[in-house]
Amino acid sequence: xxxxxxxxxxxxxxxxxxxxxxxxxxxxxxxxxxxxxxxxxxxxxxxxxxxxxxxxxxxxxxxxxxxxxxxxxxxxxxxxxxxxxxxxxxxxxxxxxxxxxxxxxxxxxxxxxxxxxxxxxxxxxxxxxxxxxxxxxxxxxxxxxxxxxxxxxxxxxxxxxxxxxxxxxxxxxxxxxxxxxxxxxxxxxxxxxxxxxxxxxxxxxxxxxxxxxxxxxxxxxxxxxxxxxxxxxxxxxxxxxxxxxxxxxxxxxxxxxxxxxxxxxxxxxxxxxxxxxxxxxxxxxxxxxxxxxxxxxxxxxxxxxxxxxxxxxxxxxxxxxxxxxxxxxxxxxxxxxxxxxxxxxxxxxxxxxxxxxxxxxxxxxxxxxxxxxxxxxx
Length: 378
What we know:
Layout: E1 2-4, E2 7-8, H1 19-31, E3 47-49, E4 61-66, E5 71-79, E6 82-85, H2 88-91, E7 104-108, E8 115-118, E9 131-133, E10 151-154, E11 166-167, H3 172-180, E12 184-188, E13 199-201, E14 206-207, H4 215-219, E15 228-231, E16 243-246, E17 253-270, E18 273-289, H5 294-302, H6 309-321, H7 335-347, H8 358-371
Parallel strand pairs: 11-17
Antiparallel strand pairs: 1-17, 2-5, 3-13, 4-5, 4-7, 5-6, 6-10, 7-8, 9-10, 12-13, 12-16, 14-15, 15-18, 16-17, 17-18
Helix pairs in contact: 6-8
């Protein structure tokens, strides 16, 4: 199974006037706990404060938190108005109640600047259209969806104006090779480290097999295991969504996103009898390789997302006319509409993003006009 690294914070209900204070309290309440256990530290705890040469990276890192769900994750800047993180930090996991995206905030360089932004569309109910993710309903039991646990978010305010991380598309095999040369490391916020200062997890191992568990056994637990990154970068609560970085002569490049900790449960034996209890063993931390999301991010950057309910209703009507959508014509963007768009894009041989964009609507207008001459394209 997978243990996610989002922090559950104790935060009282607040009024609109108290939101500013609540943003800080949600993190401070975690630092004051009397007992905080790291999610996954392998051997000795190698986390340190950022060395001098990496301190500028604080400007491109921050925390993504939800004041109602009381969760905190790490997020990182990839454009002046786009951040990357883990999908479960936004959508939670399969069976959990869908969040309200208007309740999310991003705080860049939290320990120093605290430059805040909300998700684009928070004030018009269109935030869902400004998020692209591998999945909105992740499974933490086999087949585990770790390689779909990525997301990118367009911000309402372009607070990432002090630098961004570059994505380098790279498969796990190449990441493993780079880790053997000690070129892979992680930077993240952790609830148990230095009052929410970003931590440097020193060059760490990326491999296929850990703790005597073979890759064949591990791969059977995961969906799309060919994009899975197993690593031993030390993590703590709130490290979900943090970047796995490749050290290069041109500076650090994102080659993966840390998402969770892989734990196996084993039944305990008493003689020849299986005990009712089981022993859990932390195998490794998990991440998703950049090859899984690099093209999707490029498409997201250039997408002209539909801004109003009227355009969304038109898209729903045209998708329904072509047999891709069966939901209500209500001008909202949800999972059913995303699935319909992906199905249409696949059939039309377009890049599959699921985004409600102007380009998709243009293709829909052309196709529906051909099938219904009375409705010419606009």
